[in-house]
Amino acid sequence: MSSPRTAARTRTTSESTVELELNLDGTGSSHIDTSVPFFDHMLTAFAKHSLTDLTVRASGDVDIDVHHTVEDVSIVLGQAIREALGDKSGISRYGDALVPLDEALAQAVVDISGRPFLVHEGEPAGFELHLIGGHFTGSLVRHSFEALSFHAGLTTHVRVLSGRDPHHIAEAEFKALARAFRQAKAHDPDVVGIPSTKGAL
Ligand SMILES: [Mn+2]
Asked: What CATH fold (topology level) applies to the domain 6-185?
């Protein structure tokens, strides 16, 4: 097996500072402190269920709103994933998952396509306005997926098929994305070279 696919990035803006390291060929261990507790919980789940080792330290203007910090961490995570994937030779490329959390059920499909796209459907009405944990606006789930998919170069479809509890819904979505990404990034021993008829992804 080739060497682990790793990346490390630091990004500083007037709104946040993000330091992030990852290993796509890890075991799912993580050390995450974004200063946004519910987002830490989601990124910990993403690392665990995608078998990505992930270290994130972020600080931002969360006294205004956690929005900038969640967006910026998602951008950097996407950039690091893109860098770590390299030329994408020998990977499965596609992954899909259906993940429950009690009453919530989320489906995710990932194509490591190099063509950023997000289709995101099914969250119940009002979810986007709910403050999960008193600080994480439901709308940030989609916003995080947008930033991640765009900067990693993923085609991502996420659908919520059922759910009532906002914490469960968000967590099922992140875990489904993680499981689909785990499959897509995995080495497939039957794949020779880059899995595209174009010869590039
Ligand atoms: Mn939870």
From this structure: Ribosomal Protein S5; domain 2 (3.30.230)
